[in-house]
Write a structure and sequence with these properties.
The complex is a heterodimer of chains A (163) and B (84).
Chain A lengths: L1 E7 H7 L7 H5 L2 H9 L3 H23 L10 E2 L3 E3 L2 E7 L4 E8 L3 E7 L9 E3 L6 E3 L2 E6 L2 E10 L2 E6 L1
Antiparallel strand pairs in A: 1-6, 2-4, 3-4, 4-5, 5-6, 7-11, 8-9, 9-10, 10-11
Chain B lengths: L2 H12 L6 H5 L17 H13 L5 H4 L5 H13 L2
Helix pairs in contact in B: 1-3, 1-5
The chains are: A alpha+beta (163), B mainly alpha (84).
């Protein structure tokens, strides 16, 4: 299972004020707020955590068919850097999700999977692919087999992945 | 406060965050914040905070997880106001 989430950092800076009173408390756990408090690049930490929660939630949505707005229930671990990506886990009551996050000056993009070995099986799709939806959850047909698809749009970025 | 007044106040709160004007103009109780109004998911936090301030209520995590459409928001506001 896969999920992804992209954040256009330029748009996020004008669209959201995470320093607003109460904002962090609604969506981040105490441990996550500690990661933000000690981060040198606080904006990047806020949006990296958010992107990981969103990517993990997309798997949860696919697994359960439930739609919930409960970002605080998806707790992010600290990330570890390796070969250009930041790796970590996101945990909710039922499951552990594995995240691989790319951070650039312009965007943050996270891919979440249910197994760490799945990262190498994830591939990119472009806009020309025909994406179908069942219960709002995207997939595509390849040789008559339904393949999970995850699409994320924000600002000038659109990222589509499959496995 | 009757339901129409609550919806009007809710519309004023939601308006700055919408990305689909047509869906906003044709808003009903079934209107979905993310799927219909195309509100960025991070901005849903702002809507929750704005509702808390405007109505003087506190929206706990259990209520917030249902906050996906107008009907759910109305119900949460009504319940919290009744419990004040």
């Amino acid at each position: 299972m896969i999920g992804n989430d992209v954040i256009d950092l330029e748009l996020a800076a004008v669209q959201s004020n995470w320093k607003r009173k109460g904002f962090l408390d609604k969506i981040f756990t105490a441990a996550e707020k500690a990661l933000i408090a000690t981060a040198v690049e606080k904006d990047l930490m806020v949006w990296a955590l958010w992107s990981r929660k969103e990517a993990a939630y997309k798997i949860f949505n696919r697994q359960t068919n439930l739609r919930l707005y409960n970002p605080i229930a998806f707790e992010c671990s600290e990330m570890e850097y390796a070969d250009g990506f930041y790796y970590g886990v996101v945990v909710n009551q039922q499951s552990t999700y594995f995240t691989k996050t790319e951070i650039t000056d312009a965007f943050i993009h996270t891919i979440a999977t249910t197994r760490p070995e799945d990262f190498r099986k994830v591939y990119w799709l472009d806009d020309t692919v025909t994406v179908l939806k069942k219960n709002g959850i995207p997939f595509r047909k390849a040789q008559n087999v339904a393949k999970p698809v995850s699409i994320s749009d924000h600002g000038q970025f659109r990222k589509i992945i499959s496995i | 406060m009757n339901k129409t007044e609550t919806i009007d106040r809710l519309k004023t709160i939601v308006k700055p965050y919408i990305n689909n004007v047509e869906a906003f103009e044709n808003l009903t109780e079934e209107t979905d914040f993310i799927n219909d109004l195309k509100i960025n998911s991070a901005n849903l936090v702002d809507i929750v905070l704005d509702i808390e301030e405007a109505f003087g209520i506190e929206i706990d995590n259990q209520s917030m997880e249902k906050m996906l459409n107008i009907a759910a928001a109305l119900q949460i506001i009504e319940t919290k106001l009744a419990g004040k």
